[in-house]
Here is the input.
Amino acid sequence: MHRPVVGIIGNAHLINETYHVQATGTMNLEAIANVAGGLPLMVPADPHLVDLDSLTECCDGFVFTGGRPNVHPSYYGEEETLAHGEFDKCRDTLVLDLIRRCVASGQPILGICRGFQEFNVAFGGTLYPEIRDLPGRMNHRMPPEGTLEEKFAPRHEIIMPADGVFAEVFGADRVLVNSLHGQGIKEPGKRIVIEGFAPDGTPEAIYVRDAPGFTLAVQWHPEYNAEKDPVSRPLFEAFGAALRNWQAGKQSHAVRKSA
Here is the structure.
């Protein structure tokens, strides 16, 4: 059996102010290849380049990555402000439909940072444009100075119910994670279950209620040091197990169909 193919949602970038590219961080690719045991395949975040039928057919699951642009507030019924930052409506258009489709079919999906926020918006939730402006909240943004290791260093705990989905994955109801985000969940979507919170009350770990497959999403960046980090590794291993189960079911269905 070949390794499950994992579509990793890319982000649009502009090099030298003239050359348009789609890219994803190498950390995302390494986490899927080396920990989840999948074959990483970067997906351009543009509905003009891919169609959902072909995409879901060729991939066994998807990672919805972080990215500098934020989900446009029009997708959750709010007006655009300067606090909302940059946008990429092409990615919005592609991923929100893709998330709902995967949830309906049971195809495994993992959300990271912006991807976490996309899960929420896909099911009718809303977002705060800037967490650090809220009373009693810490600054969850990436430190502006320092090495890569310092920027991705653990910043705060996540507290989860001991009998929850995430505690089962991590083997603990408190874990230490990094923090590199500006926005966060305001109102959860109708099927979004918040299981993990930062000490200041910011939602950090969610899944989709009554979904037939793997639908976990986290607000931090578990792709950093995924092979060695005691929180990141079990998350990607659980995702990998879900991918292989989906792959086996898909192949079994193909055999029955051809018989």
About this structure: The domain at 5-258 is CATH 3.40.50.880 (Rossmann fold). The first strand starts at residue 5 and ends at 9. Helices lie at 26-36, 52-58, 89-105, 114-122, 148-151, 165-170, 232-258.
